[in-house]
Amino acid sequence: MATAPPDLTSRDTPAPRLREAPGRIGNVIFRGISTGAGIAILITLAAVAAFLIIRSWPALTASEEALGGISFMRGSTFVEYVLPLAFGTLLASLIALLIAVPLSVGVGLFISHYAPRRLAQGLGYLVDLLAAIPSVIYGMWGFFWLMPLVEPFQAWQSETLGFIPLFAEYSAPAKNIATAGLVLAIMILPIITATIREVFLQTPRLHEEASLALGATRWEMVRQAVFPFGRSGIVSASMLGLGRALGETMAVLMIISPGLSINLHLLQAGQHTTIAANIASQFGEGGGGLGGNVLIATGLVLFAITFGVNLLARWIIARRAEFSGAN
């Protein structure tokens, strides 16, 4: 006669012991560290903004008579003083982006999809090494080597294309916004290239193979698979480079002949300067009192420009995300 199977639901059967999930303590610690790091970033950003606003307030509320006593303001109001600085900052950064972004896309594409593996590894290492060079080195290189090199070319531009206001009335030496923008382009090139290279390398292999299987050439595959996937990455990399170009100080200060004009005469010296370079050059004279508050107020304007650029970049990336090949 067959025996009945034991009753597994009996109260005499001991209940299984619940074991803690592996790595639970580590997850809690990691979550706490990550949350703390995020909060620390927000606190630091708020502290910087509060410092700039508090120290800028005396300059923003000062009368024209009080501001007229500051020598480097030359009798202008704060708005009249900061507008040419903001214009020069944006102009130099725009020139740098127009030069650096196409080169960065080309170099990143060559490293990720065209160069042999060993050559790609060497080029990638050199690109990363360029990003570690201090800005003062770029400034000295631009002043002693690049400036004499571009002077004949800029003189030829002015003679040949002088009917265009951008290239009119070149004046030697080439201590102008065009040369400063060229040096800035070389400075931000490794940052943009490194980011774009990593984005291109993340392109799904199946997308590339599907394009090639349909008979596409290598370049057609890049246009159909790599560029759509990396579009938002290119925008992000460009904004990273723009952030460094906006705040660059020493290289621009060593190259450009400062001026407070709002025009597009790229080859004329003494026409433009940037906010960061102006703060560095005037801080010794106006670092205390109301003059220091004016310089900090211009730093607040630079902070606002950088913050606005980052917000614009996030908006562009969010709009482009739904069209990205990653989706």
UniProtKB/TrEMBL annotation:
PROSITE patterns: ABC_TM1. The chain crosses the membrane at residues 28-54, 81-111, 123-146, 177-196, 249-270, 290-313. It is found in: Cell membrane. It is a multi-pass membrane protein. Pfam families: BPD_transp_1. InterPro entries: MetI-like, MetI-like_sf, Phosphate_PstC, Phosphate_Transport_Permease. Residues 86-313 form the ABC transmembrane type-1 domain. Keywords: Cell membrane, Membrane, Phosphate transport, Transmembrane, Transmembrane helix, Transport. The keyword Repeat does not apply. Belongs to the binding-protein-dependent transport system permease family. CysTW subfamily. PANTHER family: PHOSPHATE TRANSPORT SYSTEM PERMEASE PROTEIN PST, PHOSPHATE TRANSPORT SYSTEM PERMEASE PROTEIN PSTC. Part of the binding-protein-dependent transport system for phosphate; probably responsible for the translocation of the substrate across the membrane. This is Phosphate transport system permease protein. It comes from Georgenia alba. The gene is pstC.
